[in-house]
Design a protein that fits this description.
By secondary structure, the protein is of the alpha/beta class. The chain has a domain of 95 residues: Cupredoxins -  blue copper proteins (Immunoglobulin-like). Helix content is 16%, strand content 29%. It is built from 1 helix and 8 strands; from the N terminus they run αββββββββ. The strands form 2 sheets. The chain has a 4-stranded mixed beta sheet with strand order 2-1-4-6, with no helix packed on it. Strands 3-8-7-5 form a 4-stranded mixed beta sheet, with no helix packed on it. The chain is elongated, with a radius of gyration of 27 Å. The chain starts with a helix and ends with a strand. About 9% of the residues have low confidence.
Length: 140
């Protein structure tokens, strides 16, 4: 009887070990096949302003994504759609000058301003206070 219990224990351990290693092989992830649809990432993205330029100066996002413009400088910033001073490149009219992509006021140091990009296209922007500071948002 003791031999039978020993054999059963060994069989259970062997089968359990095989099942464990079969389920934990560390398989590599596979890109979606052409028939699968990848869900666009609309998680907020950040752009930093250091008083001289925006970093990164170009980002690509999905439509519906919010971009957070962070003022990490000791100067004020005013992110707005290109072109200075009309701010009319982004195609949704409104805001304070030409389009809705316009902070419409100075953003103090250590503060943020955010904008949700719903329109697909390539949208230039600048700092209204320092027009040489420019960037591009590509919305897909």
């Amino acid at each position: 009887m003791g031999k039978i219990i020993g054999i059963v224990v060994v069989i259970v351990l062997v089968v359990g070990g095989i099942m464990y290693f079969r389920n934990n092989r560390g398989e590599e992830s596979v890109a979606p096949s052409p028939t699968e649809t990848a869900v666009p990432n609309t998680e907020a993205q950040s752009v930093n302003y250091d008083g001289k330029s925006y970093t990164p100066d170009s980002i690509t996002i999905a439509a519906g994504t919010t971009v957070i413009f962070k003022n990490v400088s000791e100067k004020e910033m005013w992110p707005a759609s290109a072109f200075h001073p009309t701010h009319g490149e982004y195609p949704v009219a409104g805001g304070c000058v030409g389009s809705t992509f316009d902070a419409c006021d100075r953003i103090k140091p250590n503060m943020v301003w955010s904008f949700q990009f719903d329109e697909k296209g390539t949208w230039g922007y600048h700092d209204h206070i320092n027009p040489g500071a420019k960037g591009t948002i590509i919305v897909q």
